Amino acid sequence: MNKYPEHEILLKNGMRCILRNLMPDDAEEMNLLMKQIYSETDYLMRYPEETEQDSRNTRTFLRKNNADPRSINIGAFVNDRLIGVTQITGVGDHIKTRHRSTLAIAILNQYSHIGLGRALVQEDIRMAREFGYEQIELGVYAENAAAGHLYESCGFVQWGITPNAFKLKDGTCRDEVEMGLILNCKDS
Q1: Residue 51: pLDDT band by 50, 70, 90 thresholds?
Q2: Domains, in order of start, for the chain
């Protein structure tokens, strides 16, 4: 199922970027991308060695995600190379939580600060609305000022902080800032 029509965006540096729904056939490339991104930054949930190695598992994940009418994984491609991914998915299917969604985004460092992050967040917001979610939630490392600024400029606000949310290999801990965007919710 392809619920996200492929389209082209122009990045600030003049590069053309194709945004499209990630399909099971993209599994191996997605695994390689994530391993590289995990090696470039501590601002994500995993280290490179924790990257999914089995493309079958990633294919299954993408197949299930594509079958879910309220989730999507969008890939950003430049010259047919996957350079970034983003995901909107529900927090839960129960009556009390099905209005909530989460956003995740990862981009190769060399493609940062050229408008791709903003384009992906804007697509996530649009898709969350289309899927009927009433709010989007995300977490960001407290010291990741660039990401925090991007989210704020797209309308997200800080909801709280989880102290010591991440413990790095060197034993140091990092706080996580919880952010959210209310799309439409009664009594909010």
Answers
A1: confident
A2: 7-138 (3.40.630.30)
